[in-house]
Design a protein that fits this description.
The structure is a homotetramer. Chain A has about 350 residues and is of the alpha/beta class. In chain A, about 30% of the residues lie in helices and about 20% in strands. In chain A, helix 1 packs across helix 11 (about 325-335), helix 6 (about 140-150) packs across helix 11 (about 325-335) and helix 7 (about 155-170) packs parallel to helix 9 (about 220-230). Chain A is globular, with a radius of gyration of 20 Å. Chains C and D meet through strand 8, strand 9, strand 10, strand 11 and strand 13 of C and strand 8, strand 9, strand 10, strand 11 and strand 13 of D.
């Protein structure tokens, strides 16, 4: 029996669809409410023909409303909404006692000022910022915080791939925080399910380019978490790129070694050796997006270049998976005292 | 009438095929000899069905031999051979008075010691290293050197995209040479026409990964040219990546600004404002591989991040074009006193 | 000197862009006017960054107007407009003595009734239907008609690949006209430069499907030309498919042999053996889109299956090239007494 | 607890890998033996980095041997071996009382003569042909036969997509068996995990072409099953195509209607309306490979063209899934009295 009742708000995009996919297959969770203004009244399987014939896929989209979600009996609601909009639903759902896992940026930052600087409008619910937990369960103590959280801010796609390998090195002072340079490459689904011609097949295929330089919004949460780890303000150089793949993020980060090169592998091992979802590939082993797509895995390899004195961190994840939907389900598992890997073991 | 007689040695791979394509269409050059052990006796158009029915495509592959090439009357020979092998043909062809444009790495380095360090065997013809000209025509004074050269070492694919934007900044002391970090993303044709299953469609599609870290062979020529420009030894951090595209290289380089940010654009403009093939996109404009594939263009954009004090250089080229074959044809044009753009204006 | 002045009306889509590319490179044609409401006032090279730095690419888009086109001195105008709209411009341009090559469907059909049946609205200029020449130059006598035409209706992408191999067999009565079954596979550019999410990268990548069944609009012109060849009304079964490629159409047609199998190759050879752009691959040789993209070639192979008594015709072309833009330029060459291959020899 | 012990023989290719993926995730099956000469002694997760960290992925490849498989306690063995080789293992395994699901062609045909005609060598074990069950569980009575079978011949990728929609129409006499024309489009994984340069990324990307005409090996099993359904010998025209996708087969079949058009949908509904894995899309609804990849679903749409009197059957499946590995697991479920959908519900 599927004991846990869940809702997905704003389920018509790629992140929403991936959440639906994971929850339809989840052995312990049941979808009781999915919302979409655009698809109100239509069953999931009509909007997403891939789900056709799967148990639960006859559920119909409803208009988004906290009342409807509460009436359906949802214990947990996932918000796959644009930033700014998500906060409004979070407030209403929390008031009804429904725990919220927000996949937007609205509650990822501790500071309303930084939010306004990066997102261009005042924070819509600053009073909730203290309560929200940044849901990167692999960080020290974070799983415990998520377990008891009412409001989890699930991390962005780039941040997960960048923060995770860097944190243990910063915590141990193995690299110079001022020297961090990151390049990420994202598949096109990162742009969302969009009619923007820039992301049409003919424009995105056979096209490789940087974008969003030099101050991508995700920098705010990246630097927040790195600063916590380093115990000092950290700013990094970050360049995202769009590459012709459906999903996946490959991230290459380098930084100047300030400690012992052998300590790099040891620090990663200490932090993630027992992790369910971080897979350490070892020295000289690049991470490949094709090994992690449609999973909750984050693969991490590393190397050291004695010529330049720089450490290389090579990570890969699915931008819609560990970078969004499956990471949010991982938080749900923690919040509901399920096994962390429940419903997340598909490969 | 096509006045200039040319030969291509080792014409069965992707670089060779691109050379053939350019020379078949070139208004002033004629292919008189193409060699391939594998395809000896077969006409070009059988091996490359794309060329079928095009004037000149009935020419048959011959076994590689300097005598045959000389007998065919070639004035210029392109070598699209593996390193180590190319040198042997270069010696034989130069002895017969045939000018050589070598697309391998054999003559790109000034130092036989550095060659041995990076390529793992002694240099096959160290006596020719002084004579060879590193054929990046956009560099200051390089066009003149190419015009009179007997032996041109045509640059590698990554180096062209990395060296070209950096040189003017290093020459003017605008960036810290010790701070350079480069990420490049290459299409799969960079691996050559190969039966290696790693580059099969199903392995390379939907796969994004770093490789060849931390000491890629191309670093040797990159650092050689950057050191000349900087007037001091330069070592850079360079991470190449493989992305699911046919061709194209996108390169993102960052370095700490040591001068005035406004000087960046001015330095690029001064160096390349009149260039036929370097297209300056301006500040905040990323370069996209899709705009340069099958051309000899190198697109360069740039940006400055005041948060980290780093300059961003964003460049794109075709790895088989400006990164290999069309750049070699550009050298041929210079050597034979043709217009630099002859046969290279297709878009 | 580029002697012939040309205009492109509606130059902002993929067919328009391909026309611009061909005309910018054409040795005898000059672009004097390009129109686009959307991009009025912007230079070509800004809208199409690939053209940047190419001679002629500074030309600015104007609003579409026959007066403007005439004032610019255009002798020939290409219409890359939606059906229904094209006719209106054709009328105005012809009145000003400007010859018109229309890439829409407006003048492809001899019958206004059939037009209305397939396109859903009355024909906008039935009085011009007699004057228009269906511009498939490889058909018997068609080149002559094109040479003197004031109005050429350039064929659709699917029709060229289907009609061309069938016509000689129908003319010679080698196949049963009632037995023709065609499957075509088109790259995504066939859908145009569109913001429709169906053609976004993430929807079109890794997706293969039929569409537009069972009565695709192109059937009307296909059956018109086949009926002429057969000397009787012909109706065919035609199923187009969308495949994850940028451009290219691969067509497989089969029909019951009614004559001698050996006569198939002979009939194709007789019809197209001397053609500049039809390349006969021979028996048992499938045509591959990758050999014809960005060219004006149509590759045709064939086979015979004695088990079922069916002939197989295997053809490939570029939907934007021989299926649209380069075929239109081929008509222009004929109309202006240039060599048929001028500006169309790039590979 | 995973109660059923399974073995996979020849597990290093794409079909083998998909079998491993499904069995590693299967709630009731345990992998106890996997064989590969090439990878002997290496753990699954090293050969397939995607499986890293998943329970069971530490299992090591062994050399293929019926003794080893028996010693490991396998009840069922899957053979993912080339035809000709598979039979040899089937004999040895059956002798040890291990039930066999063979994914090769060795036991798909009822006739050793037809086998020799299509596969070019005498059948290696003609005495087993009577015993083998052609494992297309959706066919009438086939599930029952599979349940008690010792040896299941799991169908080829093309046949499943072609046979399934045709059988109900042939059984009811709704179409003319002599009029069947099929076009299929397969992703590149259909060629196997191969170093053949024809299937390298740069050769297969942006390439669409027919191949294997006019007498593909799969015709033998297709026509066998169609003949059974029609009650008369059936021969069809079948043209497979290679398209640039990782996996998936899209099939379009047409045939002349001999009955009532309305009966088409009814016949499909009667045959497959209750099927777990055949999803009927209805009239005018094309099947799209992107909705079935990595699943055991076969999607079927259909249409009728009154102009030509032909019925269109539009089907899609994953060539590695319903066309190979997941179909084989479906047979295993039947043989072991599990729910048919066990381990096959992932989307």
């Amino acid at each position: 029996m599927k004991a846990i009742k869940t809702a997905v708000v704003g389920a018509s995009g790629y992140t929403g669809a991936e959440l639906l996919r994971l929850l339809l297959m989840h052995p312990a969770a049941e979808l009781v409410c999915v919302t979409s203004r655009q698809y109100e009244g239509e069953p999931l399987e009509k909007v997403f023909p891939r789900f056709r014939g799967v148990q639960g896929s006859q559920l119909e989209f409803t208009a988004p409303s906290a009342d409807t979600i509460a009436a359906a009996g949802a214990e947990v609601a996932f918000l796959a909404l644009p930033h700014g909009v998500a906060a409004e639903y979070a407030i209403a759902l929390l008031e009804k006692g429904i725990r919220v896992i927000d996949l937007s940026a609205d509650f990822r930052l501790n500071s309303a000022e930084v939010y306004e600087e990066f997102y261009g409008h005042p924070h819509p619910a600053p009073e909730l910022l203290d309560e929200a937990v940044y849901g990167l369960p692999e960080l020290k103590g974070r799983s415990e915080a998520i377990k008891s959280a009412k409001l989890v801010a699930s991390p962005g796609c780039y941040p997960t791939s960048i923060i995770t390998p860097l944190v243990p090195l910063l915590e141990k002072g193995l690299i110079d925080p001022a020297s961090i340079v990151t390049c990420s490459m994202s598949g096109v689904s990162g742009a969302g399910k969009t009619g923007n011609v820039l992301f049409s097949y003919c424009e995105a295929n056979e096209s490789v380019r940087a974008y969003g330089v030099p101050k991508h919004r995700h920098l705010s949460e990246i630097e927040q978490e790195l600063s916590i780890a380093a115990g000092q303000a950290v700013q990094i150089s970050f360049t995202p790129h769009l590459v012709p793949a459906h999903n996946g993020i490959c991230t290459t980060t380098s930084a100047t070694l300030t400690g012992d090169a052998d300590a790099i592998g040891a620090a990663l091992e200490e932090a993630y050796g027992d992790s369910d979802f971080v897979r350490l590939l070892g020295k000289g082993q690049p991470a490949d997006t094709k090994n992690v797509t449609r999973t909750n895995f984050l693969d991490i390899g590393w190397d050291y270049d004695p010529r330049t004195g720089r450490v290389l961190l090579l990570s890969a994840e699915d931008n819609l998976g560990k970078g969004a939907a499956s990471q949010a389900v991982q938080s749900m598992n923690l919040m509901l005292e399920l096994s962390a890997t429940e419903g997340l073991q598909n490969i």
